[in-house]
Write a structure and sequence with these properties.
Blueprint lengths: L2 H22 L13 H6 L7 H19 L4 H20 L13 H4 L1 H23 L6 H26 L7
Helix pairs in contact: 1-3, 3-4, 4-6, 6-7
Length: about 170
């Protein structure tokens, strides 16, 4: 990864962070679906980043999101879990020979079917952890399930739209 790629990742991180805390923090659909677009940034990080570095990046990135959401540790714990199990999900979905080192995990590098399955699995796990922790003892099981599924779908659609609109095919390798 060269300096330009690192700068692109940093700019994307800041933009997605700002979108999350300024727009999606206060936005929900019918009090059922929220959008956690920041998960899209995390899951598109390159495969070859060492796991410990990935977990440090995830911790600091999502801890600052927890501060704005006033949810101490909820988003951080969910994000750390998905980033910890991410190699297993990649291994589960990868073809026999695996993938070469790619600069970014996106629909152009991986294909829409593979990326959608990969993203949905991680988004669903993340959303499940967030809403189970938030709903402990306060909301019914049916409401929690509805929030998990609707938020997962909304987040997946938003992540895919983001990639179609802001990532370009010529950036893939």
């Amino acid at each position: 990864m060269n300096v330009i790629d690192v700068l692109k990742q940093l700019i994307q991180a800041v933009l997605i962070y700002l979108i999350q805390v300024l727009v999606f923090r206060t936005t929900s659909l019918w009090d059922v679906a929220a959008c956690f677009i920041y998960v899209g940034f995390l899951i598109q990080l390159p495969f070859y980043i060492p796991r410990m570095l990935l977990l440090f990046i995830t911790f600091f990135y999502t801890f600052s999101i927890d501060i704005f959401f006033n949810t101490p540790g909820v988003h951080t714990s969910a994000a750390l879990l998905i980033m910890y199990i991410r190699p297993s999900v990649i291994k589960l979905l990868s073809p026999q020979g695996g993938y070469e080192s790619v600069e970014s995990v996106n629909i152009y590098n991986m294909g829409i079917q593979w990326h959608s399955a990969y993203a949905f699995i991680l988004i669903f796990i993340h959303t499940t952890v967030v809403f189970v922790i938030e709903s402990l003892g306060s909301v019914g099981f049916g409401t929690t399930l509805l929030k998990i599924f609707s938020t997962s779908i909304l987040t997946l659609i938003t992540v895919l739209l983001y990639q179609f609109l802001f990532l370009y095919k010529h950036n893939s390798r």
